[in-house]
Amino acid sequence: MSLGTLPARRPRLRLRHALHIFEGLAFRAIRRWLARLLSILVRLSLFLGTALVTGLGSAYFVMDKGTSLTVVQSGPWALWPAAGRPDADPYTRAHFARLGALPIGAASAHYFMATTDANGAPLYGDCEYELAGSGPEAAWWSLALYGHDGRLKENDFDRYAITGATALRDTSGRITVRIASDVRSGNWLPSGDDGGFRLLLRVYQPAADKDGLSSPGFGTIERIGCR
Amino acid sequence: MRRFLLSRQSLFWIFGGLLLGGIVHILVVLSTPRSIASTASQQLWAAVPVNEATVLPPVTADAQLFSYMAPDVRYVLCRYDISKDPVSVRTPLLDGSWSISLYDELGSNFYTITGSDLQRREAELILAPSEDGVTALPFGNDQPTTAITVSVPERTGLLVIRAPESAPGRRAEIDRALSQVTCGAKSRARNG
């Protein structure tokens, strides 16, 4: 290396050094900017996630299951006392709109719906269940079995419901209903295919108490066994 | 990460999310009846003619016009429109468990009367706009004393007559009774 070449290289070195410093600063700035952006994105997703999960989740839950303010639970049977009333609360309105049903006002009819057995397990067509009780006190009642889409479950026997007029009672006036896919003697409701189902106990002109509530007249839904 | 999530700023964003969640909850619950009911009523209403009684066939797994129909109840539907004239509905009432219900476009049941409320073998309902009131109806004194005038809040809606099979073997009798149900504009109903 000759001495004469040194001055010519100095500006390049300075430039490189400056570039190096600038790169460092820029990298640090970009890193800081990216970290900030990431932190904003994480907080924004926290914000939106919390809003969607709590908002949609809680709305779905109260429309589907209800709360103690909107539903009267009697064992596995859920009664929405404000069903069909023009002054019904928004949750009851939303619940029945989702069901797609046209309920009669609670002054004239009560609808008890069960989706689980005595142990809280969902009702399935490949299991056998038993309901027992005196039945509801009313001008007329009917117990029918539906799929989760609100349609009657198809069966080979065209047997879809048991009513107060058709139910067989024992000598003490007790009614025992069997729900099974295979033929059973007595009050038998075919459960159709092996999919899930729900029971709807429709009570017209119920004998209501002073609060306007009535009893389904059937206690728990016992699971006898599954295939 | 934990420190980040528990920082004051993050907690502030989560709290904001909870507030927005509350707003989402209210909006979803309030909008559900209108959004879903309009779709369901559109399907239901398309199947039923206006101001005409339609006796539905017995409900089976293959024959259901709307969800949760009762398999042991016979239904008569009338999609009423009182924009021009009041609508008259006449029906026999074989027993106390029969009912006549009126629904608005969102499926809300704003009126129901049952056979046991009326204690009669037949009923006539006259559906009129609420602002008209009973005295403003155009059909004067020839209105039968048994007719019940119902002031309905909207010009259009759905009338549902439910006839439960209250005893085995009554289906033929119920079918005959349901074939006598009429639903139509008051002037048309008077002429036959």
- Please report the total strand number of chain A as a whole number: 10
User: What is the string of helix and strand elements of chain B?
Assistant: HHEEEEEHEEEHEH
Which regions of chain B are unreliable across 5 or more consecutive residues at pLDDT < 50?
A: 133-145, 188-192
| Strand residue percentage of chain B | 25-35%
Give structural notes.
- The complex is a heterodimer of chains A (227) and B (192).
- Chain A contains 2 helices and 10 strands, in the order αββαββββββββ.
- Chain A has 227 residues and is of the alpha+beta class.
- The radius of gyration of chain A is 33 Å and the shape is elongated.
- Chain B contains 5 helices and 9 strands.
- The radius of gyration of chain B is 23 Å and the shape is elongated.
- In chain B, the strands form 2 sheets. In chain B, strands 1-2-8-4-5 form a 5-stranded antiparallel beta sheet.
- The C terminus of chain B is likely disordered.
- Chain B has 192 residues and is of the alpha+beta class.
- At the A-B interface, helix 1, helix 2, strand 5 and strand 9 of A face helix 2, strand 4, strand 5 and strand 8 of B.
Keywords:
heterodimer; A: 227 residues; alpha+beta; 6-stranded antiparallel β-sheet; 4-stranded mixed β-sheet; 26% strand; elongated; B: 192 residues; 5-stranded antiparallel β-sheet; 32% helix; disordered C terminus
Report a brief summary of the structure.
Chain A has helices at residues 6-64, 90-99; strands spanning 72-74, 77-79, 109-114, 127-133, 138-146, 161-163, 175-180, 187-190, 198-206, 218-226. Chain A is of the alpha+beta class.
